[in-house]
From TrEMBL:
Protein name: Tetraspanin/Peripherin
InterPro entries recorded: TET_plant, Tetraspanin/Peripherin
Source taxon at top rank: Eukaryota
A GO BP entry: auxin-activated signaling pathway
Species assigned in the record: Vigna unguiculata (Cowpea)
Transmembrane segments: 7-30, 42-63, 70-95, 229-249
Signal peptide segment: none
Locations listed in the record: Membrane
Family per record: Belongs to the tetraspanin (TM4SF) family.
GO terms under cellular component: membrane
């Protein structure tokens, strides 16, 4: 019958262990050097911690042939897989809901383009004030070097946050005069709230605009989408290793049965010699 070596199973457990440690490292990096949308900081930290602890438990059980550790690993891994799968499904629903038009990436996003769950991220005034303060400190619009000749090229390669927060919305029809945006002298577009919120000051720009919040949410949605893909891969990896761990338990049982049989045989031989 096909048997899987426990050493091989133990080596497999190092994959999610290092993956969990890497997730915690990325979380720490985001905390220190990340942008102003640190929405993945805590999900990466806690998921990496859980995966690392559970994988270490499976590693000890497989290499040291400790069935108790393997049983605990199987129970913990089952709930980890269930949690990751549920999180992935919820995240996919959240990022796919919305009514963003196909041309939104070219003309900019608005808050109404996203799911209600994502809207809550920017609808909370305290949260948004912290985000704006972070934008001003990070000077996210600094260094774009925009002028009348390269505006299309610059914002074509900018992030969605820069596109929504560092320039007036398209419908405002502002014109560049040197490096300053000027509002049209007349026209209904200039009456929109986003157009009135615009300022050429770097610490303000369009940070109070709906288009800025939409650009932020577009970035957040992309982060959650990427996280969902990674989670799906982790679920697949953990499921495969879970199956192999079951074989490791079986190997431990066979080894123990073999050891017990040999010990009983030796005892019978010793008893017969004494007679």
């Amino acid at each position: 019958m096909f048997r899987i070596n426990n050493t091989f199973v133990g080596i497999l457990h190092t994959l999610p262990l290092f993956l969990g440690l890497a997730a915690m490292g990325v979380s720490a990096y985001i905390r220190v050097h990340g942008d102003c949308q640190n929405v993945l900081k805590y999900p990466l930290l806690f998921s990496g911690l859980f995966v690392s602890v559970v994988s270490a438990l499976g590693l000890v059980g497989a290499l040291c042939r400790v069935n108790a550790a393997l049983y605990l690993y199987l129970i913990a891994t089952f709930f980890v897989i269930l949690a990751f799968a549920s999180f992935t499904l919820v995240a996919l629903v959240v990022v796919t809901k919305g009514n963003a038009p196909h041309h939104a990436s070219r003309v900019g996003f608005t808050v109404r383009d996203f799911s209600p769950w994502l809207r809550h991220y920017v609808s909370d005034d305290h949260n948004w004030d912290d985000t704006k303060r972070c934008f001003a400190q990070a000077r996210i619009c600094h260094g774009l070097a925009v002028d009348a000749h390269n505006v299309s090229l610059v914002f074509k390669h900018s992030t969605t946050t820069q596109f929504g927060c560092c320039k007036p919305p398209e419908q405002c029809r502002f014109k560049l005069n040197g490096t300053l945006w000027e509002a049209p002298k007349a026209g209904a577009a200039a009456e929109e709230s986003d157009c009135r919120s615009w300022s050429n000051r770097e610490e303000k720009m369009c940070f109070d605009c709906d288009s800025c919040k939409g650009g932020v949410l577009a970035g957040v949605r992309k982060q959650w989408r990427d996280m969902s893909i990674v989670n799906a891969c982790v679920v697949l990896l953990l499921t495969i290793i879970y199956v192999f761990a079951c074989y490791a338990i079986r190997n431990n049982r066979l080894e123990y049965s073999k050891y017990t049989a040999q010990r009983n045989m030796k005892m019978r031989i010793l008893n017969s010699n004494h007679r």
